[in-house]
Write a structure and sequence with these properties.
It is built from 15 helices and 13 strands. The protein has 436 residues and is α/β, with parallel strands linked by helices. The strands form four sheets. A seven-stranded parallel beta sheet has the order 3-2-1-4-5-6-11, sandwiched between helices. A two-stranded parallel sheet has the order 7-10. Strand 1, helix 1 and strand 2 form a beta-alpha-beta unit. Helix 1 packs across helix 6 and helix 14 packs antiparallel against helix 15. The longest helix has 24 residues. The radius of gyration is 24 Å and the shape is globular. The two termini are 42 Å apart.
Length: 436
């Protein structure tokens, strides 16, 4: 089924916003509607945001009125430190049941439901298989409240799929995500100068890049993927390998017994390690991704490459922090402000730099400068890019791939046009294009 009219729940989440941005670029997608309690955190062009809670009656009215054919649920809380246990249960279990109820009914046009889940569904235990496949049942009862919520939410989705065989139901179980835009327990943990580990344990880790996570969601919207699919990058690494790749020190500060109490002590120092993460720091986990790849999806980054990308972002973090310190808090997306800047007639539009005085022609008229298309700032460049010094930009661009470098050159040439920056970009492009 080709999705035309898409409803995204959890539009304020990173995943919901990224998915909406991607779908907006597809002219075949007629409508993108996002529902959430909070406004989106990213700039959106044609996505409509509706402020609504998880009430199935309200969502059902939107689904029916807009003739939604595809619903993508990105609300699932997979990190227990971001909210209370009660609110996580209401969101993950009650909210999922309400959403599924809104997708059914005699007047519903829904033909596809995509549910963003987590590999926490499998848990982490000593006798786990090397890789979990999608057809494996959870081998042990859930240890933590969050794992119980995820299992219950998936059970509701499974029941819905059985009762509605005419609807394509996709469940995506994601491995731990890494990316500069993410604010998760693992991101905070790996940002420490010294990474605490559990004495006697060196667990295996599998990650998935945040760009791949957004791309997998888009892949599920554009294709009919019925059933459960694991979403994790190729390859696994021991935790010590991860810290070595990040250039970090690791230290076995957590005892193998009484680990929870020791972790509580770390929380007083500012590091909160949720219970589901403690299990992973002990036994690790890996998921088999072959089923998703058989549908045609190809991961952009392996687990090792995902970690190396994180290292690049951590390396330039000091540059960005210094820039924010010089210019206040830096850029922060606010929907009302962006709408004002985009639509208000009071905003002065300056699409090109002021023309130099030397363009005055006889008769006192100013010669019209040739019009140039204003290049967009590459997505990989930070919003503070225009405030960065040349040497800071050069340090930043080393983590860019070829398309971003090409876009950056067009943007820089249309703005400051700094020769040192342009030479550095040309050098990197020449190196990237030269045969190995």
């Amino acid at each position: 089924m080709s999705s035309k009219r898409v409803l995204i729940t959890g539009l304020s989440t990173y995943w919901g916003g990224r998915l909406a941005q991607g779908l907006e670029q597809d002219p075949d997608i007629e409508t993108v509607i996002g529902v959430d309690r909070r406004p989106p955190k990213v700039e959106l062009e044609r996505t409509e945001w509706v402020e609504v809670a998880d009430s199935h009656s309200l969502i059902r009215r939107i689904v029916q009125a807009a003739e939604i054919d595809t619903v993508v649920d990105t609300r699932l809380v997979v990190d227990s430190v971001v909210t209370s246990q009660r609110r996580a249960h209401e969101n993950n279990v009650i909210g999922t049941m309400n959403l599924l109820a809104a997708c059914s009914g005699p007047y519903s046009c829904v033909k596809k439901v995509v549910f963003k889940s987590s590999a926490h569904y499998y848990g982490c235990e000593q006798d786990d298989p090397a890789y979990f496949t999608e057809d494996m049942l959870r081998p042990h009862a859930p240890r933590t409240a969050l794992e119980r919520d995820i299992v219950e939410a998936e059970a509701s989705v499974s029941d819905f799929a059985e009762k509605h065989p005419d609807i394509t139901v996709t469940v995506l179980r994601f491995a731990n995500g890494l990316g500069p835009q993410l604010n998760t327990s693992h991101m905070r943990y790996l940002a420490l100068p010294v990474v605490p580990t559990i004495l006697g344990f060196d667990p295996r880790y599998q990650f998935v890049d945040s760009d791949d996570m957004a791309a997998v969601l888009e892949h599920a919207v554009r294709n009919d993927l019925d059933g459960v699919y694991n979403a994790g990058a190729d390859g696994v690494l021991a935790l010590t390998e991860v810290t070595d790749l990040l250039g970090k020190q690791w230290a076995p500060l957590l005892p193998p017994w009484g680990t929870g109490l020791a972790a509580a002590g770390l929380s007083r120092a500012g590091l909160r390690i949720p219970p589901e993460m403690l299990q992973q720091l002990r036994f690790g986990r890996a998921i088999d991704n072959r089923k998703l790849k058989a549908t045609g999806y190809r991961y952009h980054f392996t687990t090792r490459e995902t970690v190396m990308r994180l290292r690049e972002h951590q390396r330039i973090a000091t540059i960005l922090n210094r820039t924010r310190g010089r210019n206040g808090d830096g850029y922060r997306y606010e929907r009302e402000v962006e709408e004002f800047l985009r639509r208000s007639p009071s905003v002065v539009r300056r699409d090109r730099p002021a023309e130099p005085v030397k363009n005055v022609v006889p008769g006192g008229r100013r010669a019209a400068a040739p019009k140039r298309a204003r290049a967009r700032r590459p997505a990989a460049a930070p919003p503070e890019y225009d405030e960065l010094e040349a040497e800071e930009v050069i340090a930043l661009m080393r983590s860019f791939d070829t398309p971003d470098l090409e876009a950056l050159r067009r943007y820089e040439e249309g703005r400051a046009g700094r020769e040192s920056v342009l030479r550095a970009i040309d050098s990197l492009l020449s190196r990237a294009r030269s045969p190995a």
